[in-house]
Write a structure and sequence with these properties.
CATH architecture of chain A: 4-Layer Sandwich
Number of strands of chain A: 16
Number of domains of chain A: 1
CATH topology of one domain in chain B: Rossmann fold
Number of strands of chain B: 30
CATH class of chain A: Alpha Beta
Structural class of chain A: alpha/beta
Shape of chain B: globular
CATH superfamily of one domain in chain B: P-loop containing nucleotide triphosphate hydrolases
Radius of gyration of chain A: 17 Å
Distance between the termini of chain A: 46 Å
Helix content of chain B: 40-55%
Strand content of chain B: 15-25%
Mean pLDDT of chain B: 80
Strand order of the largest sheet of chain B: 6-7-5-8-9-4-10
Largest sheet of chain B: 7 strands, parallel
Order of helices and strands of chain A: EEEEHHEHHEEEEEEEEEHEE
Radius of gyration of chain B: 29 Å
Distance between the termini of chain B: 61 Å
Number of helices of chain A: 5
Number of helices of chain B: 33
Strand content of chain A: 25-35%
Largest sheet of chain A: 9 strands, mixed
Low-confidence stretches of chain B: 1-61, 598-603, 758-765, 835-842, 854-869
CATH architecture of one domain in chain B: 3-Layer(aba) Sandwich
Largest interface: A-B, 49 and 55 residues
Oligomer: heterodimer
Low-confidence stretches of chain A: 228-234
Chain lengths: 234, 869
Amino acid sequence: MMTAPITLAGVDLWPTIEGALWWPAEATLMVADLHLEKGSSLARRGTLLPPYDSAATLALLSRLINRLAPRRVVCLGDSFHDAEAVDRLSADDAGLLHALARGRQWEWIAGNHDGAAGFAGLDGEVATEASLGPLVFRHRATVAARTGEVSGHFHPKARVAVAGRRIACRCFVGDGQRLILPAFGAYAGGLDVFDPAISTLLSPGFNVWLLGRVRIHRLSSRRLHRPRCVTVMR
Amino acid sequence: MTAKGRLFGLLTGGYGKEVPPPPGPWVEGVDGRDGARRSWVIDDEQVTRAVGALRIAIMDVPLPEPFASWFAARGWRVHPHQLAMLAAARAGEHALLIAPTGGGKTLSGFLPSLIALASGPTGGLHTLYISPLKALTVDVHRNLEQPIAEMGLGIRAETRTGDTPPGKRRRQRHLPPQLLMTTPESLALLLSYADAAALFGGLACVVVDELHALAGTKRGDLLALGLARLSALAPGCRRVGLSATVAWPEALRAWLSPRAEASDVRVIECRDERAPDVSILQTSQRLPWSGHMAVHALAEVYRAIERAGTSIVFVNTRAQAELVFQHLWYLNDANLAIALHHGSLAREQRRRVEAAMAEGRLRAVVATSSLDLGIDWASVDLVVQIGAPKGASRLIQRIGRAGHRLDLTSRALLVPANRFEVLECRAALDAVRARTLDGDPPGDGGLEVLAQHLLGMACAAPFASDEMYDEVRRAAPYARLSRTDFDDVLRFVENGGYALSAYDRWRRLERLRDGRLRVASRRFAQRYRMNVGTIVEAVTMQVKLKRGRVLGEVEEYFIQGLTPGDTFVFAGEILCFEGIHETKAIVTRAVGGAPKVPAYAGGRLPLSTHLAGRVRAMLAEPEHWRELPEAVQEWLRLQSDRSLLPGPDDLLIECFPRGGKQFLVAYCFEGRNAHQTLGMLLSRRMERAGHGPLGFVATDYVLALWSLRSVDDMPGLFAEDMLGDDLEEWMAESSVLKRTFRNVAIIAGLIERRQPGAEKSGRQMTVNSDLIYDVLRLHEPGHVLLRATRADAARGFVDLGRLAKMLARVQGKLVVRKLAKVSPLAVPVLLEIGREQVGGLAYDELLDEAARELIADATGQSLATSTTG
């Protein structure tokens, strides 16, 4: 079990086993990369994946919200898989989303997948960036960010080798300056934290918080398994 | 008596009547009584019987010219089974030839077509030849071109595989050759084009080679469906099957029939009555307790290679191939030409080895099952099998590679790697001598394969579902297909088949006004054609020398386990991993020393039920031990003194404490896969009962579990009801099921390997299949793809069928032995602990373990017990 929070810019943040981030002092819940309607997005091109991904993602979010009763929910971008995804939400899923937003502040940070008009008809504020206290929320981490950046976008995932087995799981990844959340969506895949896209954003001794089945495990990057040791060879 | 004399005796012994030649089938030979040439008319039945009764045959058959002269010019004679196949062709019957390796089996499939085409040429495609290997189509084509050219038959024969250039492929559809040699996948592709009816409408014959290797596999399922379509397009098309000897010829007959009726097909069985010369290596070295590499015996293997002309050294895994090859190379004082051949090596390298072998330039080749099928090398005179053969049929096939001609005796040497393998080798040898075979008959076809086929059919032409249902049930693997399953599969193809009909807007099939179905857009047809086939390969990466050539391919997961500087054995060399560049693993040649990363796993077959039964029987009967090496006899005697020997149909379970843990060793003999599943299920039960299971390890013979507390209620633990809820729960979470689901989803076309415009690696597939599995299982557990997944897993990795049979068999027959310490028979499996990956540990415990190591690292404590195996 997690015994220590993640401290970022002097703020204590608690990762949840579902892959969300909880800031008790502000009663704020953060989730990244819901990718709602990814299934139907692919179905438009003939890949007929089970059409239950939005329902699965929202059910998980709903459980979290019922448990923690946040005052504020921040969705860190790529909440919808494409610009028309909101229109494709089933009546049930749209209704659930509406019910979840009722009585609380809801912030949609726009991501690269969410279209410009992507949030039409939804409750909540839409922004490209937001800040609260010492934290700044954006979809994609920036190289020159000041301390306290919380973002998503990369769907971080890490591998550990133990007892001859390799385990890959979604994870939070942070270096004290910034924290990147795992993807929350049911169909959102992952990118290894050693991929240059992620690792070049972080200082070398970064940490990950791996999402096990029932517990979260904090590990140093040095303890992780490096899957693709990309060495430039000429 | 010469073979000729024997045939003569047989024919005059009642079958033959002396008459003037033609018309009708006849044989001609020299009468042994007076040396005169005579002809006999024999009916087809008699030919069939004559073939069955003969070991080898030398007959002079007046084939039509120019065939007769051509045979004569080469000093060849027609084999009786070739004649019998000709007779079946004349009678217009479907024919299944079951014959051991060698002996002109392939020619006997083609001969009737060549004769027909030579006498009355037809314009379009006359005969389709299908083989499981691309290499075999090329080989067969080459072997056919020669007689066609030499006899001046003017018959056009061509191959068509994934390697055929696009221009030639297009031309073949409009202007087909008379004989086309292809693979099941290429046939499926051809059948998906709108012109399939025109192309195949006049087809006279389809020949399926190596049928035993296709029936019962997903490729075989796809082929059976393709054949059903061919018969619909060309109702007069005759089917010919060529097969090695199998344990279930009747099932193969039904498979070949266009109505799934065994009686439709004439069987021509050619038994190999040569007794193969098989022996087990009597090593002068100490016989190891465990391990699979047989390193102890390799010096003796080397000496056997030295004495023989040309040898094939068969091993069971690619890791073994690498290691054995390396050791032989160390021992190679005489500088013999020894080569390595396995499926991961670069294709050019494999072709080079095959060519060198064919030209007789090699003294030995170390090979995996990559050499099990096909290409003929008559010159091999010794087959060495390193490690246990795992199945009698497989051993016979491998032995058949030596003296790959009917008139030569095969010589084979079995080299057991450990004590249990001695028993298994002995059992296999007995099985070869008794000519008993193993293997299960082909089962029901996969629903995912049906899904792929239905999409292909919808690409070719609109179809009515009722007619299509009837058509697919004419394929034997689908003869028992229920209408519900068919409809569910069709609905899956149409719109995903989900209870929540969300995708009606994005259907892949459209319904015409008359109710028939066809593919909704050309785009879907194009994507179907890019993804046709049922072979879902593990994602592999090329291994490339830095500034050098590509050595071959290994599974991506193996490369992911390496860090730069790690050394490993591949392509017969010790290589040092440098890093990944683009999509290639870059390596350099390592200088000396032992490889750090021992090996990578490669297809390991479980012990066959048939051999397992023989091993059990041998253990139970001490009078049969005499033929075993002294060390093994001693081991078994010790076992019967200290504990008990497993009986032929009971289940011996030993319990003993060791190192503070309680061990439970069950002698099931059901093969690694079934044991692995049993281990998972028993661990769950022991967890629930508070025994505190810590891990287990499964071999082909034995399952060993260890726990904190001992088990008292053994019958309760082994009760059959573990196949109920425990199994369901485990299957739900197991990574085995996820892996199976991925394969099923790819074959069914839910996930595509390739999309137009981009060659994607498996890892970059649209959506991770594990995530889809989780969502689908939660929201629609009865979906047709999940049903297909469970059926597939039950047959494959999980081996439920065998486990269920064993549990039923041993109820009330558990023999529990409580011991003070480990028994002699249990030593090998305990030695596997740590060497084998240990299953059964929970996910979070493993992650905690990683965290503890971190703490130890941080506090500078040394790790007394390494957890990596």
